[in-house]
Every structure is written in C-alpha cells, then in structure tokens.
C-alpha cells in the first residue's frame, strides 16, 4: 500500500478548492436543484376565487371541517363519562405515538429500528390518526426536510401559518412537492400492508374502535362516538398539524437560523415532544427532539422504553460534539450582535498621530496624559478618579505608563477599558510599552465573522 506524495495531495487540494469560473457557475451543475426543478416543471396557475372550486380537495375539506363541528356538537349535547374521557385521552396518545414515533421518527427519518410487533402497533395507531398512509405521509415529510421553506416543500412555512397548518391539504397546490426517495419504505412489508388497507384500517381504528369500546364495555356509545371519536380525532389532527405550522413559527433558533424551524416548549406539549423542531431539522436522524433531560419529549421516552424492553434497537444520536458546535455557533452569533450594539474605544488606526511638542502644547489647555503610546483626554474624569484628582493633575503633559501599571497603582482591567475610551491621539514615535495595554481587556476576545476575517486578511496563507 502506498501513500500519495505531499505534492499530489497539494495538487488535489488545489483542484478541490478551485472556485468555479463564471462559465461553470452558469452551468446547471452549480445551480441549486430547487431552481432548476422549478424551471423544468409547469406549475399550475396561482389560486384565485375563480379557479378555487376546481382546485379544492373536497374529501379533505369535509374531513377537516366536519370533525371539529361534530366535536363541538358532542361537547354541548353529551354527558362526559369518566371512563370515556380517560379512554379518549389514552386513544389520543396512542394515535399521536403512531404519528410521532412511527410515521415521523421511524419511517420518515429511520432514527431507530423497530421490531415487527412495534411496527404493527405504530402502523395501526397511525392509521387511526387518519392522516394518510405511512408511505404518503413520509414521502411528503422527506420532501419537507429536503426543500424546507421553498416552493417544493409541501407545507412550506413561507406561505403563512394557515397554509402550513391545513391550507396545503385543502387545495391542489400550484407546485407539486419536490422529489423524495422512499425506496426503503416500498420494501417494508408493514408499510406496504398499511398502504394497501389504509381506508379500512383508518375506518376501523379511527372510527369504529374508539366508538365501540366505550359502547361495549360501559354502555357509553354516544360518548364513544363524540369524545373518543370526533373530539379525539380533531385533537390528533391539529396536534400533528402544529408540527408543520407552530414549530416553524414560534420559538428560538437554538441550533441554526438559516431556515424557519423553531424550538418551543408549548409546541412540544401539544405535539408529544415534536416541538424542538430547530434541533430536529438540524439533526433529523436523531431519535430525540429534545436533548436536555428536562425538555418535554414523551416520544423520545417511549422509543427509549421500547429499546429497553427489546422492541426497538439502534437508536441513532447525532454526536454530542456536533450538537454543541451548532449551539455554540448560535450563541456566538447572538453575542456578536450584542457586541456590535456597543460603542467601542477607537483603535490607533482611527486616531491622529500627534508629536511630543504638539502634545505638550495641547496639554496646557486641556488635561492630556500619555499612557502606553496613546494620548488620553482626562477632562471629564479628573474629579471621578478614585485615586483623587491630584494624581492625575501631576501627570498632565507627561507619560504616566509606569505609574498606571503599578508604579503608583496597578489598575484593574475595568480601569484599562475605561482609559481606552478617553483616547484622543497616538504619540508620534511613542511606544506601546506594554503590548497588552494597546488592546483593552474588553477587546482582547473578539468574535469575528468569517467574511470579516477574510477581508481583514486573516485568511492569508490558508
Ligand atoms: Zn422530520
Ligand atoms: Zn419542519
């Protein structure tokens, strides 16, 4: 086995890092896929009042509008039986797990492996949530991740909160979702079985079972129909829809701010833990949405429990160090923004160079003192000097570097920062006696943007 020579490595490196020529940059290879795809397809015309009836998906409209209306009717006309209420909550959690632990984290993102029993448990739970089959749902969701915030994203947040919540399901969109690979799902027998029997399964687990269990076991057919049936289904629908709408609108960009996903506890509460969506879009292969132990993520706890009892395995986690890097980047970005809002002392490049004679002459009309090569105007500070006015007056027109740095008193970092704000000039031929003092302590650790570093020549030699 031979190793490449240093010369060939450096040649390879220069080839890789070579920027595209203007002609190359114009070629398709260097243009974003989304732009090329949008140019290649023929989108439908924008939706208007005139073409709206032809674009409406009536089946979805009927399901989405009648379930909350029937729920409201049930709430005001049906007696709430304790067992039925508890059963409805349990059924809601089961359906939600079908979507969050099944449709989303298992089948859309392959964030863990599940045994057949667990897959059937989640596939039937997801069918009872009545949101389409695993195959259809995961295909849309993979397109959502691949084309987030573009016109190829089926529920792109850039179209507004209503569109990303339910609008995208109610009408035929102008642009179909972008291509997404689901070849792995096509080979999964559970996914295939659920897709083939979806309407039967949805009717059975979404309608019949929730109504029949309270009816058969404690004779509450009406409560079963309205509470465990329609009201539970309405809650399941809108909880899930919040992952597409609320999670792209409310909260913090903890790990990245390039796209719209956000982290928020409220979204996590209504979505069984899917609310740390900023994390999820950065690390979609991770079986967790919440990385901190105190953050609300019941779906993560469910998957971990399944792993503990042998129903799940290969739980995938993004390396902690990568998670930390993303978080630190955002923290530094926020610090940089805060730093940029502060007025900092002038640097020597922005100050006039003043000769010793000129400094002496100007010192007769105002209290100027040289410290470490910088000329400082003490006019507003004479009476505020903690060591007393006399010490400063004694040094007017003189170089007080030694006194400032311990000859009289070894000043604090805060004092050095304050002193730097009084700079009015640089002494011609004057030396920065103590290198460190030229840069006040508050400016020694700076957050520099890459573009700023390149412009200031920091990248030279890289
Ligand atoms: Zn996802
Ligand atoms: Zn999203």
Please describe what this structure looks like.
- By secondary structure, the chain is mainly alpha-helical.
- The chain contains 23 helices and 6 strands.
- It is elongated.
- The N terminus and C terminus are likely disordered.
- The structure holds zinc ion (ZN) (2 copies).
- The site of one zinc ion has 7 residues, from helix 6 and helix 8.
- Stearoyl-CoA desaturase that utilizes O(2) and electrons from reduced cytochrome b5 to introduce the first double bond into saturated fatty acyl-CoA substrates.
- Belongs to the fatty acid desaturase type 1 family.
Gist of the model:
This protein is mainly alpha-helical.
Structural domains: how many: 2
Uncertain spans: 1-17, 458-462
Heterogens: zinc ion
- Report the C-alpha radius of gyration, rounded: 33 Å
| End-to-end distance | 30 Å
By DSSP, the count of extended strands is 6
Largest sheet: 4 strands, mixed
Individual helix count: 23
Main attributes?
23 helices; Flavocytochrome B2, Chain A, domain 1; binds zinc ion; 462 residues; 2 domains
How are the elements arranged and paired?
Blueprint: H1 6-16, H2 22-26, H3 33-40, H4 52-55, H5 58-77, H6 82-108, E1 113-114, H7 116-128, H8 134-146, H9 161-170, H10 183-186, H11 189-196, H12 198-218, H13 221-244, H14 265-270, H15 277-282, H16 298-308, E2 312-313, H17 320-340, E3 353-354, H18 356-363, E4 368-371, E5 374-377, H19 389-394, H20 401-404, H21 413-420, E6 423-427, H22 435-438, H23 450-455
Parallel strand pairs: 3-6
Antiparallel strand pairs: 1-2, 4-5, 5-6
Helix pairs in contact: 5-13, 6-7, 6-8, 6-13, 7-12, 12-13
One zinc ion (ZN) binds at residues 144, 248, 261, 277, 281.
